[in-house]
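Quiz preparation item.
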């Protein structure tokens, strides 16, 4: 599995654990909902700054978003 796809799957996992919609995650990160959707479906390859921002909002270490489950 490609790293950006793995990242997207993990973002979706931790977002859903918190009971958040994509819209709520987008609002909390200051990103657009369609960008969040693109990340979660593996269509986007986010920068390290975006990885860090999403990790901070989800309250998980960035490396946890890159681990295989």
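Solution:
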């Amino acid at each position: 599995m490609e790293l950006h796809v793995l990242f997207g799957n993990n973002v979706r996992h931790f977002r859903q654990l918190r009971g958040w919609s994509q819209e709520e995650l987008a609002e909390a990160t200051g990103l657009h909902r369609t960008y969040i959707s693109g990340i979660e479906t593996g269509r986007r390859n986010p920068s390290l700054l975006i990885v860090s921002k999403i990790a901070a909002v989800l309250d998980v270490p960035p490396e946890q978003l890159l681990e295989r489950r």
